[in-house]
Structures are given as C-alpha cells and as structure tokens.
Predict the 3D structure of the following.
Amino acid sequence: MTGKAHRMRDILRSLAMLAAFATPAFAAEVHPPTQVTAGASFSMPSSGTGQGTLYLIGPANLSKRQVTLGGDIPVEGDEVEHAGRYTAILCTDQCVASTFYVHANSADRLSLLVHPSRVPVSDPNAISAVAFVWDAYHNLVLSPVNVKFTVNPTEHASLSEGRTTSNGIAWIGLTSAAKSGPANLEASIGNLSEVRVVQQVASDACNLRIHGSSSARKIMVETDPVRDCSGNFVPDGTVVSFTLTDAAGKTTVDVPIKKGVAKVEIPAVGRARITAASGVVTGNELDMTGGGE
Amino acid sequence: MTTRQFFLLAAATLIFATSPLFIVAVDDSLPQVTLNAENLGPRSIEELTSKVIVRDYAFAWQTMAQALEQNRTDLLDGYFTGTAKQNLTQLVADEKKTDVRVRYLDHGHKLEGLFYSPAGDAMQLRDRARLEIEVMDGQKVIHSEEVSLQYMVLMTPGADRWLVRDLEVAPEAKP
C-alpha cells in the first residue's frame, strides 16, 4: 500500500469516528403517564432497542432492574403505593429521566382527633373534632371529600353536620350539651366511621346551700345535693370549703363531695358563723351555737 | 500561665479545631426555612410555636438529607414520626439494597400554614421547596435536576419539638 493510500485510509477513519461522535445519539426513554393512582399497576412505553436499566425512585421506595427496550415496561401496584413524585430513570449508554405523580386512592380510613375527653356541660365550642382522610396506603386524600360529624348523646336525638375536607382535613367545633353524661362523636364517610367518647361533666356548683346541727362542743354542717346551674350533680371529689368563724378565730376545712353532698363536723363553743364555697361559688351563711349552748 | 499550661491549651485548641464535630457544625448549616402563618387557622399560632416549627422543619430536612446520603435510618428518629418516618426508613433500606443513593442539595423552603387544629395537636403546612436532586448508582451520577416542589406537610408536637408526620409531594394546582 502506498503512502498516499495510508493517508487516505487515516482520513476516512477519522471522518468515520467524527461522524460517530457528531451524530446525535437517540437515547432510550420511558414515557410514564403524568398521573397515576396509588396502588394501581400501569405500564410505561419505552423507546430504543436491547436492554437497559430502569431506576424507579419514589417517596418510599427505590428499585433498579434490567428491562427490555422498545416495548411497554410494567410497573406493579406495590411499587407506586405512596403518593408523591416519582422519577423513572432509564439508562443505556446514557441516562434519561422522566417524572410522574402518584395521587392518593379513594378514602379508606379516617383518623379522628377529639378534644377534650372530659368537658363541662353547656360550654360553647368546647369540643373540637378533627378528621384526617387517608387512602388504603396511608396517603392523605387531598381531593375534597365530605365528612359527616354526628353527635350521639345518651338521652337526646343525634345531631349531624357535614364538612368538606380541605387538603385531607375536616374539622368541627361543638358546644357541649346541657345534660351531663357520655356523648359519642362520630366522623364518617360512607361506610367508614370513627367514634370517640366525650364525657360531659357538670359545670361549677350553683346555688350552694348548707344546713347544720350542733351537739356538745361541735357543729355538724352539710350541703344540700350540689348541682350545677343546669341541674347536674357536681362530680364526687369536687371540694367544698367550709369556714367557721367564732370567738376563737377562723377555721377552714376542705371537704370533697361524696354521694352528691359534702359534710363536716367542726369543734365550736359559743356562737359561730359558717359559710361554704366551691370554686368561685359561695353558699348561704349559717349562724349557730356550739358547745351545747 | 506556665509553659505546661500553655502547651495544654494549645493542644486542646488544636484538637477542638480539627475534630469532626467542629467540622460538622461548620459545614452542616441548616436549610433556610420561612413560615407564612397569615392564613393559618382555626387556632392562631403562638410566636414561640412559629419559631419552633421553622427550626424543627429545617432540622427535619437536614437530617433527612443526611439519612439518605449516609444510608442511616437512626438519623430519622429525631424529627420524623408516623408515615413520614416509615416511608423514609423504607427508602434508606432500598438504597442499601440497590447501592443507589438520592442526594438533596437544599436551596430553601417557604412554608405556608394551612391548618392548626383547635387543640394545638396537629398542623398542616404547604412547603414550596427549591432543591437540587442527584441520583447516584455507586459513585456514578445517573441523574441530576434542579426543581421547585410543593410538599404537603403534617406536623405534630412531640415532647420537646414538632415532628414531621406526613410529607407528600403534590403537583402544583393549575390556575
């Protein structure tokens, strides 16, 4: 081969290499749907030929596998159970990425937060109930859903009110009933429901009344049954303070209510004045004489 | 100061300045987080709570990025709970299994308060985050992108901090 022919061959080889590098490479790609429902299987069409590596990266999982290019690449439902943004990266000699969103499936469970668990009667907006709506895969259902809140008091007809979720959350504020006792608070969507029990207890004592008797060197004082302003018995354990003022000075005794009443025996000689109080409520005054006088 | 004291002080300074703890404290700056609580309700947010939310959300992102970078689930214990923690724990487990890692370079978060429960036991926020995301297979970067993402965040109070309970990327609503 002559030198001229060698030179020509080198030029052609260089041109071939240049052409190989200059030609735009058509990298293999996957084309996922823009939106997918959580837990639903689907397939992604792919371009190219031969084998490639597919990486699928989601909010809670990351997978890597070999795939055959040029056809549909199946994605199983359990690979896309979590709502959020997914990146599908297909690598051959180079890598190309596509993204898609998985949105929550239909409502499948409710979380219900109810506060407080004990509440005084007739307290405006004292009870709050917050419902979170989730799908079967623990994704918050961001699309609007109607939640029905129902209160079932023990001795009255139930009351219901609907609320539409905003970003997966619905809430309601409620006034406690006038009558003490447990109330079931339920949040429901179709057949789904969650129930919490709120114990409605008597409010502060109202119209505290005391009466008494005396014997040798002591005075016995007792309240009438202690009720709140709605007529509910104030819970046992609520403290009533009795104060006795006589010639010896002032004596105060704190007594918890038992079986609806509070009673106390206080040593006293001569004339004495007795008062009672529970919380901010004061009762009537009694003037009595102790020590058998 | 005696010569012995001088050398001890110099040695202590040198050890402190070159210790990994010191370097971590300098390099690992928290991501920038701002909170707009104008539309937050029905409960109004206390000033201290708004500061704590911002602080703890920043720590959550910092620890999440570190957990994914270093394949360490223990880092998630501090600021994640519930579904968010389960999801990230699973992601780290998958990283270990595949030797593929996701790296976040955080360019900041704009939080918008959406819901604060009347009892103060849950807060929902929208986060507009600017991130650089890198995916690495072994030591090779196979994908890199700069993105603005919208996260829906649910936080609940813990003993001394707020924890991220749910973290979902949601597509931006079209106007």
Observations:
- Strands of chain B lie at 33-36, 100-116, 123-137, 140-157, 162-170.
- Chain B has a mean pLDDT of 87.
